Amino acid sequence: MASQFKNDIKFLKGVGPKRAELLKKELDIHSFEDLLNYFPYRHTDRSKFYKISELKDGMPMVQILAKVHVPQTVGGKRFSRLTAMCSDETGSLELVWFKGAKWIKDSIKPGKQYVIFGKPASYKNKLNMAHPDMELLENWQQKPATGLMPHYNTTEALKKHKLHSKAIQKLQENLINSLNEPIPETLPEWMRQKYRLIGKEEAIRNMHFPRDADNLSRASYRLKFEELFFIQLGMVKSRHQRKHNIPGYVFSKVGKHFNEFYNNYLPFELTGAQKRVIKEIRRDLGSGQHMNRLLQGDVGSGKTLVALMCMLIAIDNEYQAALMVPTEILAQQHFQSITGIITGMNLRVELLTGSTKQKDRKPIHEGLQSGDVDILIGTHALLEDVVEFQKLGLTIIDEQHRFGVSQRARLWKKSDQPPHVLVMTATPIPRTLAMTIYGDLDVSTIDELPPGRKPVMTKHATDSQRLRVFQFMRDEIAKKRQIFMVYPLISESEHMDYKDHEDGVESMLRAFPRPDYQVAVVHGKMKPVEKEKSMQYFKSGAADILVATTVIEVGVDIPNATVLILESAERFGLSQMHQLRGRVGRGAEQSYCILMTKNKLGDNSRQRIEVMTRSNDGFEIAEADMKLRGPGDIEGTQQSGLPINLKIANLGRDQQLLQFVRNIADHILQKDPELNLPENHLLKKELNKQNKNKLLWRLIS
Ligand code: ADP
Ligand code: MG
Questions:
Q1: Which tens digits make up the pLDDT trace of 242-266?
Q2: Domain containing 652: what range?
Q3: Ligand 1 neighbour 315 (Cβ under 6 A)
Q4: Separation between Cα atoms, residue 580 and residue 592, nearest integer Å
Q5: Which atom, in ligand 1's list, is nearest to the CA of 307?
Q6: Is 34 inside a domain boundary?
Q7: Residue 695 CB-density burial (10 A; 0-12 exposed, 13-18 middle, 19+ buried)
């Protein structure tokens, strides 16, 4: 017999086809099971009754027991409202409705005792309660003695069809009361005992309708535990599998090139963090297991040097290495800086991008095939099928958030067995998120900037302060410093934003006229060669100002640029602003970032700007970003960018729990990698089910 839990939601009493469509569309609730797993976002305490005399303005929702008197319509035509007095032995209170007056008037039974629930507020020095929840005492008493009342997120569309929180509560009640089979357990007995977790059935029931706070907290702990645990179990398992099933080339020696570089070419002392991550990577490369490692380090932390040294290890072991980056500008820049650092060493480095001329490609292709080319640097062009290596041993992907999984997979096919992969990102993500999204990768972190860096000073300026900002720019230019001026361009095809940039160029040319000032321009619609020419012009010091779009976002390294002005900063997300700010502060001089916004800002924008002016720490900013965007809030902003939709746990708040369950998952899989022991049978079953449900979408983009 098919399980009741799989039933289509439309068959639940009180739903029907129309509401079912909405529940599916708005809340992704398709089955009975989905509804059970749609948890309230909070509960209100309805175990206590307040006396009217105890009520004060500003209290949260409270519950009273009072007799309701005859309602009256008051006010003129335009401000008509319904009021009703209610009273208990300690005093009286006005109830008020601005909408639905007729219906309420008809349904109130004057003289009866009601359980009234709402928020007391003060109006003209008198307390009242607007749009309270009311229930006749005689009906209320028939209910089970539930202390805490659940509140569910709904959407505007749902509310239009009378699916308010209250209605969802009713549906949950209908469902839970009609269950004729137990809710299947997903965690084995031994785990529940060891970690003191209540059973699934009890947890689900109490999550919706807990008797008291203690009950609720045990239910929510059990469910959060389970949610995070299975994500980690899946992640750790696929990591184990990769390590044991995919062989890796063995780079056993650290040889000639690495040592030669280290002794004679290293442009500066490595930071402690750089040394540590090189060691971590070296250990992987020598292990015989396939490396799939994420290297995260804040902007300017020196990842390129780490990448280069790892590539030298590959070369020392007779392998080739590839460095793939998302933009032409970045490819050019890496090519120049790497060939610059290793000039004099006997190595062949080539650059391959979309704009590499046809006639130049052939020798590169041949060199790659014969093994003559040691290092290939490039963009997506690297993925083309004609690009064949003799022996590709290591692939490094820079600024990986621009590359998708399928592209990584294509790289794997470039050799008979997958090359080691090092993914570098300058967008630090909170640890919990890293464990959740990249949980199957190993992670190395550069948590230290090269010495002597002065933190970038970040200031907020509004449009009305523009003239002062221009003056500041002139002062900096007089000191021979250079300036980035960045306009938002969210997608390079968005005409409106492109226009912004054009206007910007014009106004810059007016405010900074030739011949006193030189302004260079770069944007995404230019041909790669032109872009490159502009960048070079700026980099050479010939231009004072580079008016750019976000094409300069990643990696661009021009140490003499000390000011970055971000126009319409309120339009940027935190991590992007931080990324852009990383374009300055790369030299020894004090650098500045000025966030220009319109005069009036929304709450969220203001908070983002505030975080930026307060902190230079990418990890701190990433944490703030996660908190501001608040994972999993339905009525508010959709959780943009978060690839995993958590039902109950919160990656911001449940960090410790996440680490805890990760360790448990690790431990279990150490002992039982395939989850074949009888005691882990349930885990295997649930993991398979979740994988099938695509709960774990491995989205790396
Ligand atoms: P990112 O991690 O953002 O890619 P880069 O690799 O571009 O950073 O390095 C930023 C700047 O720091 C470069 O100019 C680089 O030459 C310099 N740099 C890297 N490592 C060190 C170091 N150990 N000491 C001093 N400067 C360094
Ligand atoms: Mg970089």
A1: 778 888 899 988 889 999 999 999 9
A2: 222-246+647-700
A3: no
A4: 12
A5: 6
A6: no
A7: middle
